Fold Exopolyphosphatase-like enzyme.
Amino acid sequence: MGFRLVLGCGTVCRGVIDCLAERDGRLLVVTDDESVVETMREESIPARDGDPTDPATVASVDPPDVIFVGSDRTDVNRAALEAARDRFPGAAIVAYLGGNATAADRERFDALADRVVGPTSALSEWVLAEAASPSAESAIELRDQLTGIDGRLAVMAHDNPDPDAIASAVALADIAESVGVPADACYFGDISHQENRAMVNLLELDLRNLGPTESLEEYSAFALVDHSRPGVNDQLPTELHVDIVIDHHPPRGPVPGEFVDLRQGAGATSTVLTEYIERFDLGFDSSTATALLYGIRVDTNDFTREVSPADFRAASVLSPHADASVLRQIEQPSLEGDTLETIARAIKNRIQRDSVAVASVGRIGDRDALPQAADQLLAMEGVETTLVFGFNDQMVYVSARSRAADVDLGETLRDAFDRIGSAGGHADMAGAQLEIGILGSADDEAEIESIVSVVEEVITNRFFEAIETRPGVPVGAYTQTSEWLFTQRGEPDGGESA
């Protein structure tokens, strides 16, 4: 990935070069030590004999993505750094200070290099762990992508965003603004969950709620966070050109985007954005830090679900900047009556087979009550997997939870519902959205209730069948009925009935 240029090759830099030679991308070492050049060439490492302090030496070199200045001498490194910065103003430069630096040298290094490594630091370890890591290169690529945008950027969270999506959108908008690109954190739908509303209001997060028919012409570029495909769990056109995608969910199909960072090993997209804020050296605003920390905590269920070392590290970075008192207020909102009623209907209407419980809660006004109902069912004795769904206009919203070791809910919901809607998520937490077009043509309440009854049966049985079917085998039962129900947009063709 990228082109790395090493100027000077002292003893502390040799370990860096050995490791860089094993990584993807181009590498070139320039040093005036002929014996080092010969040794490197014998090891098939591209090396050139030349004075790294002479501007003419680098004049013919292609623009690198990252430059390492690594001689043992401070004066040589300073001169090489000055020549490199003058020749390659857009490159990221890591410079070793050397052992005899004066105050003036330190000031000059700080002014010209993106990162300065002192003589007491282990240069090779630092570079390999930080500057030469894939995440560091991703930060360089993200910066290049952002600075290439001419106009305003829309950072899109998924519909009805959760804390992870909200925090990630706000953080990426902050990063874009830091490099001179105006940006809005945007979403379609509603923020109806009590905790999510409390998060936005208490932290005074700047979000734009887009309407279904709202024009997007004012935006020159689009970024997707916490989801990866336009038109899937958002109301963007499916053919929209996407500039940036940052997500931690496993993709279902090809992911469009000029810059794509899918960190499936991370427990939250907020973890990835925390790392980018560090890489861009922005510092952490208290509101953004609190939002990101809450996003990580929610998506990892307080570090008990699909958590990774990166999540713990991000939390430790964010904690000193987060507002603990605001976090407590966010996490303890009052539970609204509608949510309690939804939970009660889920418990009453549940259908249980072995350790799997499915419940329809009928008409809903707040779709964010569904995951709370699914969590409550999961707390019941003998239940290890739950699915709760409800109806709003012509849409069915589905939320599922599991603590069973042999169940992957993300794949299960995709197998059950991908042909009739959009579905996805993690092994223990997933969701789906299904449109019932035929409801729009229903004439009276009795007809609507009849359609709803059939849809409830279809959803329930497709989920049970997907649970019972081995992974990777498509769900076959109810296919014709369900696909017909979920694709009608008006009067049924040919006089067919549901």
In short: The mean pLDDT is 84. The chain has 18 helices and 18 strands. The domain at 142-331 is CATH 3.90.1640.10 (inorganic pyrophosphatase (n-terminal core)).
